[in-house]
Specification:
Blueprint: E1 5-10, H1 16-24, E2 27-33, E3 39-44, H2 45-52, E4 61-65, E5 68-79, E6 86-93, E7 100-109, H3 113-116, E8 120-122, E9 127-132, E10 140-144, E11 153-155, E12 166-167, E13 174-179
Parallel strand pairs: 1-4, 2-6, 7-10
Antiparallel strand pairs: 1-3, 2-3, 4-5, 5-6, 7-9, 8-13, 9-12, 11-13
Length: 209
Amino acid sequence: MSNVVFSARTRTDFGSVKASNLRKQGRVPGVIYGKGETIHIDIDQRELSGGLRVISESTIVRVTVDGSTHDAFVKSTQRNIRDGNILHVDFYEIEMGKLLRARVSLHITGNPIGVREGGILETPLHDIEVECLPKDLPERVNVDISHLGTNQSIHVRDLALGEGVKLISAEDQVIALVKFAKAETAPAEENVETAPAPAAKDAKTGEKS
């Protein structure tokens, strides 16, 4: 689990006007749900923005609310499309001793041999689904692709996951592959038939020779 901790307070006033007033005060309305009753909260805008910059969607954070502690994922955020400010945040609370399923991002590293030789790299998969206890959940999975040659690939089955982490995603999914670059071919020359020159006429008889 990460060391990110958010300090929130219970929110009892609801509605768009109340939410707007909170944002003017530099606070963001939100909820904590998933374990028991939904808790309505508000949290400091700067604290929330700073924490979001260093976590992923599979990072377990700690939210303190009026003396109580909640372990949770940041499930979603709503942002203002004009200035990017956070308008609302949802935390999904988990139980630390209970198995959970989560999506973990893949972090691609390295410059493949095949690319240096002129191949083209494709990375169609960006995350995988796993099942484990919260304490064993990786924040991301590093995938080194530097050894990949042309026409070689890495699949989900090739990943080395930590102890206690069960793979849920299909093992045959491709994470990265290097293909041959298609050579540009010169356009084919058009076949143009040359019409035979008209036969010359005999000046005396007028017949074609």
